[in-house]
Amino acid sequence: MEVIFKIVRQQPKGLPKLQSYRLEVEGRNTILECLNRIKWEIDGSLAFRKNCRNTICGSCTMRINGRSALACKENVGSEISRFPQVNSTNLPEITIAPLGNFPVIKDLVTEMKSFWDNLEAIDPYVSTQGRNIPEREFLQTPKERSQLEASGNCILCGACYSECNAREVNPDFVGPHALAKAQRMVKDSRDSQKEERLDRYKQGIEGVWGCTRCYMCNEVCPMEVQPMDRIGEIKQEILARNNHGASRPIRHRKVLVDLVKAGGWVDERKFGIQVVGNYFRDLQGLMSLAPLGLRMIAKGKFPLTFEASEGTQEVRSLIESVKESYEG
Protein backbone atom coordinates (compact mmCIF):
# COMPACT_ATOMS: atom_id res chain seq x y z
CA MET A 1 0.00 0.00 0.00
CA GLU A 2 1.05 3.59 -0.56
CA VAL A 3 1.42 5.80 2.50
CA ILE A 4 2.29 9.49 2.84
CA PHE A 5 4.80 10.25 5.58
CA LYS A 6 4.62 13.87 6.74
CA ILE A 7 7.86 14.71 8.56
CA VAL A 8 8.68 17.89 10.46
CA ARG A 9 11.86 19.32 8.90
CA GLN A 10 13.98 22.14 10.26
CA GLN A 11 14.74 25.11 8.05
CA PRO A 12 18.02 27.06 8.27
CA LYS A 13 17.18 30.37 9.95
CA GLY A 14 13.47 29.63 9.63
CA LEU A 15 10.49 27.85 11.15
CA PRO A 16 10.03 24.09 10.83
CA LYS A 17 7.84 22.83 8.01
CA LEU A 18 6.09 19.58 7.09
CA GLN A 19 7.60 17.70 4.18
CA SER A 20 5.70 14.83 2.59
CA TYR A 21 7.13 11.61 1.19
CA ARG A 22 5.19 8.88 -0.63
CA LEU A 23 6.30 5.35 0.02
CA GLU A 24 5.05 1.91 -0.98
CA VAL A 25 5.06 -0.09 2.27
CA GLU A 26 3.54 -3.08 4.00
CA GLY A 27 1.59 -2.98 7.23
CA ARG A 28 4.25 -4.90 9.14
CA ASN A 29 7.01 -2.41 8.26
CA THR A 30 8.19 -0.41 11.26
CA ILE A 31 8.30 3.37 11.17
CA LEU A 32 12.09 3.15 11.43
CA GLU A 33 12.27 0.92 8.35
CA CYS A 34 10.22 3.50 6.46
CA LEU A 35 12.46 6.36 7.61
CA ASN A 36 15.51 4.37 6.49
CA ARG A 37 13.99 3.95 3.04
CA ILE A 38 13.14 7.64 2.81
CA LYS A 39 16.72 8.53 3.67
CA TRP A 40 18.31 5.90 1.42
CA GLU A 41 15.98 6.14 -1.57
CA ILE A 42 14.42 9.63 -1.58
CA ASP A 43 16.13 12.26 0.61
CA GLY A 44 19.56 11.68 2.09
CA SER A 45 19.39 14.94 4.04
CA LEU A 46 16.77 13.62 6.48
CA ALA A 47 18.24 13.36 9.99
CA PHE A 48 17.10 11.01 12.78
CA ARG A 49 18.67 8.80 15.45
CA LYS A 50 18.73 4.99 15.46
CA ASN A 51 20.86 2.15 16.75
CA CYS A 52 19.71 -1.31 17.87
CA ARG A 53 16.40 -1.57 15.93
CA ASN A 54 15.16 -3.93 18.67
CA THR A 55 13.45 -1.66 21.27
CA ILE A 56 16.45 -1.85 23.59
CA CYS A 57 18.61 1.25 23.12
CA GLY A 58 15.90 3.95 23.03
CA SER A 59 17.72 5.95 20.34
CA CYS A 60 14.89 6.20 17.80
CA THR A 61 12.26 7.83 20.02
CA MET A 62 10.22 10.49 18.22
CA ARG A 63 6.65 11.75 18.05
CA ILE A 64 4.61 9.51 15.79
CA ASN A 65 1.12 10.83 15.10
CA GLY A 66 1.36 13.14 18.09
CA ARG A 67 2.70 10.78 20.75
CA SER A 68 6.25 9.87 21.72
CA ALA A 69 7.18 6.31 20.77
CA LEU A 70 10.00 4.10 19.51
CA ALA A 71 10.13 4.14 15.72
CA CYS A 72 11.55 0.59 15.74
CA LYS A 73 8.57 -0.67 17.73
CA GLU A 74 5.60 0.97 16.02
CA ASN A 75 4.55 -0.34 12.62
CA VAL A 76 2.64 1.17 9.74
CA GLY A 77 -0.45 -1.01 10.08
CA SER A 78 -1.05 -0.20 13.75
CA GLU A 79 -0.50 3.52 13.17
CA ILE A 80 -2.99 3.66 10.32
CA SER A 81 -5.60 1.70 12.27
CA ARG A 82 -5.06 3.85 15.37
CA PHE A 83 -5.08 7.17 13.51
CA PRO A 84 -6.91 6.72 10.19
CA GLN A 85 -5.84 10.02 8.59
CA VAL A 86 -6.13 10.48 4.85
CA ASN A 87 -5.44 13.40 2.53
CA SER A 88 -7.08 14.65 -0.66
CA THR A 89 -5.60 11.75 -2.62
CA ASN A 90 -7.30 9.33 -0.20
CA LEU A 91 -3.94 7.93 0.89
CA PRO A 92 -3.25 7.19 4.56
CA GLU A 93 -0.91 9.60 6.34
CA ILE A 94 1.56 9.20 9.20
CA THR A 95 3.00 12.34 10.81
CA ILE A 96 6.43 12.24 12.43
CA ALA A 97 7.96 15.02 14.56
CA PRO A 98 10.87 15.46 17.00
CA LEU A 99 10.42 14.87 20.73
CA GLY A 100 8.84 17.56 22.89
CA ASN A 101 10.63 19.33 25.77
CA PHE A 102 13.95 19.04 23.91
CA PRO A 103 15.68 21.67 21.73
CA VAL A 104 15.83 20.46 18.12
CA ILE A 105 19.22 20.12 16.47
CA LYS A 106 18.03 19.00 13.04
CA ASP A 107 14.82 17.38 11.82
CA LEU A 108 14.10 14.53 14.28
CA VAL A 109 17.39 14.85 16.19
CA THR A 110 17.13 16.64 19.54
CA GLU A 111 19.60 17.99 22.10
CA MET A 112 19.36 15.77 25.20
CA LYS A 113 21.75 17.55 27.56
CA SER A 114 19.04 18.56 30.04
CA PHE A 115 17.73 15.00 30.04
CA TRP A 116 21.12 13.58 31.07
CA ASP A 117 21.89 16.45 33.46
CA ASN A 118 18.63 15.87 35.33
CA LEU A 119 19.34 12.15 35.53
CA GLU A 120 22.76 12.91 37.00
CA ALA A 121 21.17 15.30 39.51
CA ILE A 122 19.38 12.48 41.35
CA ASP A 123 22.68 10.60 41.81
CA PRO A 124 21.55 7.32 40.20
CA TYR A 125 24.31 5.16 41.66
CA VAL A 126 24.51 2.88 44.67
CA SER A 127 26.35 4.82 47.39
CA THR A 128 30.10 4.40 47.80
CA GLN A 129 29.67 3.17 51.36
CA GLY A 130 27.12 0.64 50.17
CA ARG A 131 29.61 -0.71 47.63
CA ASN A 132 32.43 -0.97 50.15
CA ILE A 133 31.88 -4.58 51.18
CA PRO A 134 35.10 -6.53 50.57
CA GLU A 135 35.34 -10.20 49.62
CA ARG A 136 31.67 -10.96 49.36
CA GLU A 137 28.76 -10.63 46.99
CA PHE A 138 25.92 -8.12 47.19
CA LEU A 139 23.14 -10.42 48.33
CA GLN A 140 19.47 -9.56 47.94
CA THR A 141 16.35 -11.55 48.63
CA PRO A 142 13.92 -12.17 45.74
CA LYS A 143 11.53 -9.69 47.38
CA GLU A 144 14.23 -6.99 47.58
CA ARG A 145 15.20 -7.54 43.97
CA SER A 146 11.58 -7.47 42.77
CA GLN A 147 11.22 -3.89 43.97
CA LEU A 148 13.78 -2.80 41.38
CA GLU A 149 12.31 -4.55 38.35
CA ALA A 150 10.00 -1.85 37.01
CA SER A 151 12.46 1.04 37.23
CA GLY A 152 15.26 -1.26 36.08
CA ASN A 153 13.42 -1.76 32.77
CA CYS A 154 13.91 1.90 31.82
CA ILE A 155 15.95 2.29 28.61
CA LEU A 156 16.19 6.11 28.92
CA CYS A 157 14.47 6.64 25.60
CA GLY A 158 13.08 10.07 26.56
CA ALA A 159 9.43 9.35 25.70
CA CYS A 160 8.19 10.20 29.20
CA TYR A 161 10.31 13.37 29.32
CA SER A 162 8.94 14.43 25.93
CA GLU A 163 5.31 14.14 27.05
CA CYS A 164 5.76 15.45 30.61
CA ASN A 165 3.37 18.35 31.22
CA ALA A 166 5.18 19.30 34.43
CA ARG A 167 8.49 19.60 32.58
CA GLU A 168 6.84 21.71 29.88
CA VAL A 169 5.83 24.44 32.34
CA ASN A 170 8.50 23.97 35.02
CA PRO A 171 12.11 23.86 33.74
CA ASP A 172 13.33 22.99 37.25
CA PHE A 173 11.46 19.66 37.34
CA VAL A 174 13.98 16.84 36.84
CA GLY A 175 11.53 14.72 34.87
CA PRO A 176 9.84 11.33 35.24
CA HIS A 177 12.83 9.38 33.88
CA ALA A 178 15.11 10.70 36.63
CA LEU A 179 12.59 10.10 39.40
CA ALA A 180 11.92 6.56 38.17
CA LYS A 181 15.64 5.92 38.57
CA ALA A 182 15.51 7.70 41.94
CA GLN A 183 12.89 5.19 43.10
CA ARG A 184 15.31 2.42 42.24
CA MET A 185 17.91 3.98 44.53
CA VAL A 186 15.40 4.44 47.36
CA LYS A 187 14.32 0.80 47.14
CA ASP A 188 17.79 -0.69 46.63
CA SER A 189 18.72 -2.60 49.80
CA ARG A 190 22.44 -2.13 49.03
CA ASP A 191 22.32 1.67 49.18
CA SER A 192 23.27 3.36 52.45
CA GLN A 193 21.95 6.88 51.74
CA LYS A 194 18.21 6.35 51.64
CA GLU A 195 17.34 9.09 54.12
CA GLU A 196 19.62 11.63 52.42
CA ARG A 197 18.08 10.77 49.05
CA LEU A 198 14.53 11.21 50.33
CA ASP A 199 15.44 14.58 51.80
CA ARG A 200 16.81 15.67 48.44
CA TYR A 201 13.99 14.26 46.31
CA LYS A 202 11.30 16.07 48.33
CA GLN A 203 12.76 19.56 47.92
CA GLY A 204 10.65 22.15 46.06
CA ILE A 205 9.00 21.54 42.72
CA GLU A 206 12.09 20.12 41.05
CA GLY A 207 11.59 16.80 42.87
CA VAL A 208 8.62 14.49 43.34
CA TRP A 209 6.22 17.27 44.27
CA GLY A 210 6.68 18.82 40.83
CA CYS A 211 4.82 15.89 39.25
CA THR A 212 1.28 16.88 38.16
CA ARG A 213 0.08 13.23 37.96
CA CYS A 214 -1.12 13.64 34.38
CA TYR A 215 -0.31 9.97 33.58
CA MET A 216 1.29 10.89 30.24
CA CYS A 217 4.61 9.28 31.22
CA ASN A 218 2.82 6.02 32.02
CA GLU A 219 0.86 6.24 28.78
CA VAL A 220 3.85 6.47 26.45
CA CYS A 221 6.48 4.39 28.26
CA PRO A 222 7.43 1.55 25.85
CA MET A 223 8.86 -0.62 28.64
CA GLU A 224 5.99 -0.35 31.16
CA VAL A 225 8.18 1.32 33.76
CA GLN A 226 5.16 3.45 34.75
CA PRO A 227 7.24 6.42 35.97
CA MET A 228 4.33 8.12 37.69
CA ASP A 229 3.77 5.07 39.86
CA ARG A 230 7.46 5.05 40.76
CA ILE A 231 7.19 8.73 41.75
CA GLY A 232 4.21 7.81 43.90
CA GLU A 233 6.29 5.22 45.73
CA ILE A 234 8.91 7.84 46.60
CA LYS A 235 6.14 10.13 47.87
CA GLN A 236 4.86 7.38 50.13
CA GLU A 237 8.34 6.90 51.58
CA ILE A 238 8.60 10.65 52.22
CA LEU A 239 5.13 10.94 53.75
CA ALA A 240 5.79 8.03 56.10
CA ARG A 241 8.81 9.87 57.52
CA ASN A 242 7.37 13.37 57.89
CA ASN A 243 4.61 14.94 59.93
CA HIS A 244 2.07 17.48 58.71
CA GLY A 245 4.33 20.42 59.52
CA ALA A 246 7.34 19.27 57.46
CA SER A 247 6.59 21.33 54.34
CA ARG A 248 3.61 22.61 52.37
CA PRO A 249 3.76 19.90 49.66
CA ILE A 250 3.83 17.15 52.31
CA ARG A 251 1.10 18.88 54.30
CA HIS A 252 -1.02 19.26 51.13
CA ARG A 253 -0.93 15.51 50.51
CA LYS A 254 -1.54 14.51 54.12
CA VAL A 255 -4.36 17.01 54.70
CA LEU A 256 -6.08 15.97 51.46
CA VAL A 257 -6.05 12.32 52.50
CA ASP A 258 -7.13 13.10 56.07
CA LEU A 259 -10.08 15.24 54.98
CA VAL A 260 -11.28 12.73 52.38
CA LYS A 261 -11.02 9.93 54.95
CA ALA A 262 -13.03 12.02 57.43
CA GLY A 263 -15.84 13.11 55.14
CA GLY A 264 -15.62 11.34 51.81
CA TRP A 265 -14.54 14.55 50.06
CA VAL A 266 -12.56 17.70 50.84
CA ASP A 267 -13.90 20.16 53.41
CA GLU A 268 -12.87 23.39 51.66
CA ARG A 269 -13.24 25.43 54.84
CA LYS A 270 -10.41 23.53 56.49
CA PHE A 271 -8.21 22.75 53.51
CA GLY A 272 -6.60 26.16 52.96
CA ILE A 273 -6.20 26.86 56.68
CA GLN A 274 -4.52 23.52 57.35
CA VAL A 275 -2.31 23.48 54.25
CA VAL A 276 -1.37 27.11 53.64
CA GLY A 277 -1.91 28.29 57.21
CA ASN A 278 -0.33 25.20 58.78
CA TYR A 279 -3.15 24.81 61.30
CA PHE A 280 -3.00 28.54 62.28
CA ARG A 281 0.77 28.34 62.87
CA ASP A 282 1.76 30.20 59.69
CA LEU A 283 0.41 33.74 60.02
CA GLN A 284 1.89 34.85 56.71
CA GLY A 285 0.22 31.94 54.96
CA LEU A 286 -3.11 32.76 56.61
CA MET A 287 -2.83 36.40 55.51
CA SER A 288 -2.19 35.28 51.92
CA LEU A 289 -5.54 33.46 52.00
CA ALA A 290 -7.47 36.57 53.06
CA PRO A 291 -7.99 38.17 49.59
CA LEU A 292 -9.22 34.90 48.08
CA GLY A 293 -11.43 34.20 51.09
CA LEU A 294 -13.04 37.64 50.90
CA ARG A 295 -13.74 37.27 47.18
CA MET A 296 -15.31 33.85 47.79
CA ILE A 297 -17.51 35.23 50.56
CA ALA A 298 -18.56 38.21 48.43
CA LYS A 299 -19.60 35.93 45.56
CA GLY A 300 -21.32 33.44 47.84
CA LYS A 301 -18.79 30.73 47.01
CA PHE A 302 -17.54 30.06 50.53
CA PRO A 303 -19.19 26.97 52.06
CA LEU A 304 -20.53 27.73 55.52
CA THR A 305 -21.31 24.12 56.38
CA PHE A 306 -19.97 20.73 55.45
CA GLU A 307 -21.83 17.47 55.00
CA ALA A 308 -20.05 14.16 54.67
CA SER A 309 -20.64 12.39 51.37
CA GLU A 310 -22.52 9.14 51.03
CA GLY A 311 -20.26 6.11 51.25
CA THR A 312 -17.66 7.80 53.43
CA GLN A 313 -16.87 4.50 55.12
CA GLU A 314 -16.30 2.88 51.72
CA VAL A 315 -13.97 5.71 50.69
CA ARG A 316 -12.07 5.31 53.95
CA SER A 317 -11.69 1.58 53.33
CA LEU A 318 -10.40 2.21 49.80
CA ILE A 319 -7.77 4.64 51.08
CA GLU A 320 -6.60 2.15 53.68
CA SER A 321 -6.43 -0.61 51.04
CA VAL A 322 -4.29 1.56 48.76
CA LYS A 323 -2.03 2.46 51.66
CA GLU A 324 -1.58 -1.22 52.55
CA SER A 325 -0.75 -2.09 48.92
CA TYR A 326 2.04 0.50 48.87
CA GLU A 327 3.40 -0.66 52.22
CA GLY A 328 3.23 -4.29 51.16
Helix and strand topology:
Elements: E1 2-9, E2 17-24, H1 31-42, E3 61-64, E4 67-70, H2 76-82, E5 93-97, E6 104-106, E7 109-110, H3 113-121, H4 128-131, H5 142-146, H6 149-152, H7 159-163, H8 165-169, H9 176-187, H10 194-201, H11 216-220, H12 227-241, H13 248-263, H14 268-275, H15 283-298, H16 312-327
Parallel strand pairs: 1-5
Antiparallel strand pairs: 1-2, 3-4, 3-5, 6-7
Helix pairs in contact: 3-9, 9-10, 9-12, 13-14, 13-16
Q: What is the strand tally? A: 7
Estimated helix fraction: 40-55%
Biggest sheet details: 5 strands, mixed
User: How many domain regions?
Assistant: 3
Helix/strand order: EEHEEHEEEHHHHHHHHHHHHHH
- What is the CATH first-level class name of the largest domain? Mainly Alpha
The count of helical stretches stands at 16
Give the CA-CA distance, first to last residue: 51 Å
CATH superfamily of the largest domain: Alpha-helical ferredoxin
Fill in the CATH topology of the largest domain: Fumarate Reductase Iron-sulfur Protein, Chain B, domain 2
Return residue spans where pLDDT drops below 50 for at least 5 consecutive residues. Answer: none
Radius of gyration: 24 Å
Q: How much of the polypeptide forms β-strand, as a percent range?
A: 5-15%
| Strand line-up across the major sheet | 2-1-5-3-4
Secondary-structure class: alpha+beta
